[in-house]
UniProtKB/TrEMBL annotation:
PANTHER family: NUCLEOLAR PROTEIN 6, NUCLEOLAR RNA-ASSOCIATED PROTEIN. The keyword Amino-acid biosynthesis does not apply. InterPro entries: NOL6/Upt22, Nrap_D2, Nrap_D3, Nrap_D4, Nrap_D5, Nrap_D6. Keywords: Nucleus, RNA-binding. It comes from Aegilops tauschii subsp. strangulata (Goatgrass). Residues 2-79, 147-200, 224-398, 401-552, 567-703 form the Nrap protein domain. GO terms for cellular component: CURI complex; small-subunit processome; UTP-C complex. One of its GO terms (biological process) is tRNA export from nucleus. This is Nucleolar protein 6. It is found in: Nucleus, Nucleolus. It holds the Pfam family Nrap_D2. One of its GO terms (molecular function) is RNA binding.
């Protein structure tokens, strides 16, 4: 209809001719003729603005169709701004540009409008079908501008154009933008830079992109470790094939499924191949290698048998026996295996894999008893069931939305950087991020990491966690009956709200098709107070990120600030020796000494080093050197575990599980501490903090008291 123009006149009384309409369409981008037949109501509207309006209308219709509550909250109560709406933002500085020449002003065609159109045309020609929509906005009126004529391909691209033969035999002019896989999101940036620099004679410093500004927090040594994901998947395929071919185990292995987040593209730092984790010594050894290796969990299912014991303890013992036998078989086939009754780790193809057996008997017994949930299943089987379902769903989601993985990685890095690792699981972060892709209204699903991360922060801070469940329907499985069941489960979890609004669990209710009661990831944590703190941090970070996208860096407010956390918000701070962390190269910003009372200082231990030498003079036996590898060892994790055992109700511990050398500490309330707590000890918090330093001797650099506990 719009290509023919819209006339607001009855057909029988129409005063404007077809020629008149054709003249309007030739003169203006959009034609909406008023009742007089003489005025185009859309005379100031550009084609790009109208395309955006049409897109908004289509998105709104989709929202009305998908949202059973009518979409009022999404359409009328959600902030829509430049930073959250568009996937990539670019600021262009044209001050003093030599291409700008004097242009006369008129009411219909100001120079800034010509400028918008011309920049838009350049970007559309350069980016072609890589973009769905481009919108150019001018902030201040330039004094000069020159309109350029249409440019043919060779003239447009210059030396970047080349003749190429394609797979279908066609030969055509094309441009090639070679890049590493992990840098593909910057191709649009490179194209825009080239086109605008060539045709507007712009300098590099005149172009400021947003698309890669947060990459710094995902890089190790200037490269994204996700680049080794292909090797990881090949290593898993090799292991899975070997497991299925085992013929000396009483029951054949029917299913092998990876559970680690590295396999679903959401690990902040997926492990890189380790030189000592190969079957043969043909690998060229570097001078140094990491002492600690993270083992990737793999779930195994055996073929059916009626001989499994029904007793949970006996069942676990039987699974351990199977795992030990599997480990022996793999070792006989040349793999390096470390086995105990608790776990079996297999080192192969550069990686370590932790094997777990999942047995459905516990779940089947319940179903036979007529119980539809899985509350009484053995804890490990229940956990493996949840993780298996979750991994499958997230893998499928990543296959649909390529930006999902990078968005989750930024989100997890942010959660850890602000010391929330103890309180919110990585699966919970993945589900919250999934929600904004599945329910993006009033936007489209994000197609860039920065925009997706901004929306994640806003969702985390604005969602009504107290009175609403977050329903994450990844496979579009839910019907009205399912949603009713979820809402009933949610209302049951809020029964205690009137008696104690500060003590509801789960505070973050995440419902999925495999977990309609939010039991898997958030049942115990975060608490309402912790969730409130997370939401507050998210709101502050979202405001800063929005400002950075629109206006750029200013003074002390930089992109790095998004991942710096203020240590002054804690009652005490424990600083760790960076050189004693298992992965010191993952530390983003070394912690600064906080303003507070120094309680204790400690020297680094000589018993542990994060890197081991691998020179020929040191490595005499590859097998003996492998024995020095520490699988799944993390000094910080063991230190936190010991502190929680020693001080279970004295304080909360806040830490960064990905790469942090600081631990925050906040005193628990006297109500939480209970009557058994020694009040005299709380009067002297320095003595408690000295004990903290003693527990972490060799790892703890210093302990600082910022605020004494409140005694009620």
């Amino acid at each position: 209809m719009w290509s023919k123009g819209l006339v607001i006149q009855p057909m029988k009384k129409r005063t404007i001719s077809k020629e008149g309409i054709a003249h309007l369409l030739k003169t203006f981008d959009v034609a909406i003729c008023d009742v007089s037949g003489h005025v185009n109501l859309a005379f100031r509207m550009t084609k790009s603005a109208f395309s955006e309006l049409q897109d908004e209308a289509a998105c709104t219709l989709n929202c009305l169709d998908k949202c059973r509550d009518g979409g009022f909250e999404e359409l009328f109560m959600t902030k829509v701004d430049f930073g959250a709406k568009f996937d990539s933002c670019l600021r262009i500085n044209l001050k003093g540009n030599s291409k700008v020449t004097a242009l006369s002003f008129c009411s219909d065609d100001e120079s800034w409008r010509v400028l918008e159109k011309d920049v838009q045309s350049l970007l559309q020609q350069g980016l072609t079908d890589r973009t769905k929509m481009i919108r150019v906005l001018w902030r201040s009126t330039p004094s000069e501008w020159n309109i350029m004529d249409a440019i043919k391909f060779r003239k447009f691209w210059g030396e970047k154009a080349e003749l190429r033969r394609f797979k279908d035999g066609a030969i055509a002019e094309s441009t090639v933008w070679e890049t590493e896989t992990w840098e593909r999101h910057t191709i649009i940036k490179r194209i825009a830079d080239y086109v605008l620099s060539k045709h507007l004679l712009l300098r590099q410093e005149d172009l400021t992109h947003v698309v890669d500004q947060l990459d710094f927090c995902l890089l190790v040594g200037g490269q994204d470790p996700v680049s080794s994901s292909g090797a990881l998947l090949e290593a898993f395929d090799t292991l899975a094939k070997q497991l299925r071919l085992l013929d000396d185990v009483p029951l054949k292995i029917s299913t092998v499924q990876p559970l680690d987040s590295a396999f679903r593209h959401t690990s902040v730092f997926p492990p890189e191949p380790h030189p000592l984790a190969y079957e043969k010594s043909s690998q060229r050894l570097p001078n140094f290698a990491a002492t600690c290796v993270r083992s990737l969990e793999v779930m195994i299912q055996l073929e059916g048998s009626g001989n499994w014991p029904l007793d949970p303890v006996a069942m676990e013992k039987t699974k351990s026996a199977f795992l030990l036998r599997i480990g022996e078989s793999l070792e006989d086939r040349g793999m390096f295996v470390t086995a105990s009754e608790d776990e079996v780790n297999v080192l192969t193809s550069g990686y370590s894999f932790l094997l777990k057996i999942f047995h459905e008997r516990g779940l089947v017994v319940q179903k036979q008893a007529g119980d539809s949930n899985i509350q009484s299943a053995p804890s490990e089987d229940k956990e493996l069931f949840f993780r298996s379902q979750h991994s499958s769903m997230i893998n499928g989601l990543h296959g649909i939305y390529q930006a999902y993985g990078p968005v989750v990685r930024l989100a997890k890095r942010w959660i850890s950087a602000h010391l929330f690792s103890s309180f919110i699981s990585e699966e919970a972060v993945e589900l919250v991020a999934a929600y904004l892709f599945l329910r993006p209204f009033p936007f489209h699903a994000p197609s860039s990491r920065v925009t997706g991360f901004l929306r994640f922060l806003r969702l985390l801070s604005s969602f009504d966690w107290t009175f609403s469940p977050m329903i994450v329907d990844i496979n579009n499985d839910f019907n009205l009956k399912d949603e009713k069941e979820i809402n009933e489960n949610f209302m049951l979890s809020r029964r205690s709200y009137e008696q104690n609004p500060h003590d509801i669990e789960p505070a973050m209710f995440l419902a999925t098709s495999y977990d309609k009661s939010s039991e898997a990831w958030t049942k115990q944590s975060p608490s309402k107070s912790v969730l409130k703190r997370i939401a507050s941090y998210a709101k502050s970070s979202a405001e800063l990120l929005t400002n950075l996208i629109i206006h750029g860096q200013s003074g002390q407010y930089t992109w790095e600030c998004l991942y710096r956390t203020p240590l002054s918000n804690y009652d005490a701070v424990i600083l760790l020796h960076k050189e004693k962390l298992c992965r010191p190269h993952h530390v983003l910003f070394p912690a600064e000494i906080p303003n507070g009372k120094l309680v204790i200082q400690g020297k680094p231990s000589n018993d542990f080093h994060p890197y081991m030498p691998l020179s020929k003079s040191v490595v005499r036996s590859l097998h003996d050197t492998r024995d020095k590898l520490l699988v799944n060892f993390d000094p910080t994790a063991y230190f936190l575990r010991d502190l929680k055992c020693a001080f279970p109700v004295t304080f909360k511990l806040w830490h960064d599980s990905i790469g942090g050398d600081a631990i925050g500490l906040t005193w628990e309330s006297s109500k939480k501490r209970g009557r058994d707590e020694d009040d005299e000890a709380m009067l002297d918090p320095t003595s408690i903090l000295k004990e903290v330093g003693d527990v972490g001797k060799g790892l703890v650099r210093s302990v600082h008291l910022l605020k004494a506990p409140k005694l009620e």
